[in-house]
Amino acid sequence: MSKIPPEIRFDRLRRMVGLQGLETLRNAVVTVVGIGAVGSFAVEALARSAVGHLRLVDFDIVCPSNINRQLIALESTLNRKKTEVIRERVLDINPDCVAETLDLCVDSTHTAPVFETRSDVILDAIDLLPGKTALIAEAVRQGIPLVSSMGAARRQDPTLIRTAALPHVTGCPLARALRRELKKAEIPMDSIECVYSIEPPVPSRTENTSAPDASLSPKAPLPSSVMVTGCFGLNLAHLAIRKILTSQNG
Fold this sequence. Notes:
Rossmann fold, alpha/beta
């Protein structure tokens, strides 16, 4: 337990949301699925916004290629589980937070553990379509508020990031594919808030590099910028916090 009272640790936040709002955030449970380029920044913002219970879901380890865009990727954290690293960071920000980890690859057949504990909001920062579709579909079925990150890779201008309900997202191939899959599953989409970019995706550049040219592979890594992925994550956290604070009046 921290020796610093929450009204001091989160004084600047309290001045914005009030004592009741601060208490609401301290009592909130938020699940973040995907602790990568987008999810790590979302978790950071939630921890610094007094959210009292964070459920952190990922299956991967920190690797060197994460360093350019993932908050938790450092020389000192390479080859460690992302969930372990982010949990330590959360508790260093706010030792009073309940930071629960779940080492799980969420795909079309593995969503149940995410829903074993009730969440006030779920943040979807999954990269791949099958897992993203399955997570969103189950959240909608259970009536759990969810905010979702669309494609942040291949974008470089953070001023072109927008938020909207999934049916109104434009210019994002991932959103189009997601709508198609959810329509097949007869999942209503109006309640799914999304973070997306209206910037046309930029092509991958492979010149002047000593790394193997994997650009011809269908599984080649996509270019990405921390300025965009980080802002995606901060926007996800903003939408989640707004839902939590709005619920205190509902």
